[in-house]
């Protein structure tokens, strides 16, 4: 499989739904003034290491389907959870697509893909991607905020609600030691938002990626919460998850900021210990948010993992911070195309051991093709949506 040749992108994505973004910019087209984030207090742990000091995180990504989810998506999720038995699982954005026509159908589409965790009593959360509000033009009125309110009603959901900053899925989750209530590791969930506005300062976004970016107030929230956590507990090493990749995901793959050629990549593989494949472009935000420099400053995030680009699976070490992808999980959305369309459907697993230095011991991918799941190209929707709780 080629590691650099692109495949056709996802169709109507960039630009066509940019107008759907709301609340980010004033009518004049200039950036809306954001209220400064309030100083944070340290959160209490919601999760806990097992008695043996170990903990697993499973990252699913881009389940991205409607109320009759492809049955193989659920089979993949169920098999991964039964095999790995994680202490926490997340769907890292683009949980659903724009096909639902009613509020009930939105809830059914979400419920289908959270039931694998909920039915097993596994704590879980969602981050939001650029597609989760795509049903709104159909009249559902199911914004990310309303989706958040819905999912927080599940018994094992651990998403927080934070109305003070941009985005809906900004949360810090701490994992308590098996020995006491002090956190031994942490998880950051951010909302990477949706699409750039039509224009800023009278200038459109033609020639740019047209995706939105993590906002300064979100970065300020992370920095303040990180400092508060350190003040209370000491430095807590963590992993961070959000949907849309950083500019630095591109820079790491190519070993350069402003070129994208295979010769640079071959050098970058050695420099940054890159593993995995890239089969499409790295679809970053329109602007560089500065998130990576904030992570460097604080020094408490070991890795940043995204989705969004379904058929990229690579990871590497970029100046001391892992940057990587989980493969797309959903069988109902685009893949490699042709007879190999579903070959990279999968999940990513992260292993923690509080008895080891640094706690975080590594990550690996799991693919549906290795779990005996049908790789046929024909869609296989479930007969009926799973019963709503």
Layout: helices, strands, pairs:
Elements: E1 47-48, E2 54-60, H1 71-84, E3 88-92, H2 103-118, E4 124-127, H3 144-151, E5 171-176, E6 183-189, E7 199-200, E8 203-204, H4 216-233, E9 238-241, H5 247-254, H6 262-272, H7 291-298, E10 301-306, E11 315-318, E12 321-325, E13 346-353, E14 360-367
Parallel strand pairs: 1-5, 2-3, 3-4, 6-9, 9-10, 10-12
Antiparallel strand pairs: 2-13, 5-6, 7-8, 11-12, 13-14
Radius of gyration (Å) = 20 Å
Mean pLDDT: 91
Assign a percent range to the helix content: 10-25%
Sketch the major β-sheet.
7 strands, mixed
Report strand %.
15-25%
Overall body shape: globular
Question: What strand order characterises the main sheet?
Answer: 1-5-6-9-10-12-11
> Based on DSSP secondary structure assignment, what is the total number of beta strands?
14
- What's the name of the CATH homologous superfamily? Metallo-dependent phosphatases
Instruction: Sketch the topology as an H/E string, one letter per element.
Output: EEHEHEHEEEEHEHHHEEEEE
State the distance separating the first and last CA atoms. 42 Å
Q: Identify low-pLDDT runs.
A: 1-37
Number of domains in the coordinates?
1
Main CATH class: Alpha Beta
- Briefly note the CATH topology name: Purple Acid Phosphatase, chain A, domain 2
Can you characterise this structure?
Helices cover 21% and strands 18% of the residues. With 389 residues, it is α/β, with parallel strands linked by helices. The chain has a single domain, classed as 4-Layer Sandwich (Purple Acid Phosphatase, chain A, domain 2), CATH 3.60.21.10. A seven-stranded mixed sheet has the order 1-5-6-9-10-12-11. A five-stranded mixed sheet has the order 4-3-2-13-14, with helices on one face. Strands 7-8 form a two-stranded antiparallel ribbon. The termini are far apart. The N terminus is likely disordered.
